[in-house]
Model the fold of this input.
Amino acid sequence: MIRIFLPFLLLFLSLSVLSAEKELPKNFESLKTLAEKGDARAQLILGYMYQIGEDPIDGGPQEDYQEAVKWFRKAAQQGIARAQHTLGLMYYLGQGAKQDQMLAYAWVSVSVHNGYESVKATKRLFAEDMTSDRIAKAEVLAQEMIKGNPELIKK
Done:
């Protein structure tokens, strides 16, 4: 059930971010240039573009999950909660990265710590497939990630 639900959730989140970021360039090359310069919001949207493939606005990139994970990770490391959540989903599904439930749970947990409260449901879904011991270890991993990179939390 969760494997059917998550791709639709990813698509919904990506479309809402694309429409919400009107001040960013719409064309792929300009957005990529901005992302390469370190703009975290541009990195997030570029990640979605690679995840979905073929930007309807101006013929962007082909679907490439590994490239999507690369850009989501860059944005996540700068404290973008949506990127942290989406990176967790990518790890959970094994899209563009080796499937890893604990790392998936940890990234979603970081996203919640970063104020993205609405994704608590994702944590609950992930927890359904995990033992309580693995959940506890994933929570410790999330805390270690935050301690090792305080930039993960933008408060």
About this structure: The two ends are 34 Å apart (CA to CA). The chain has one domain: 2-149. The chain has eight helices and no strands.
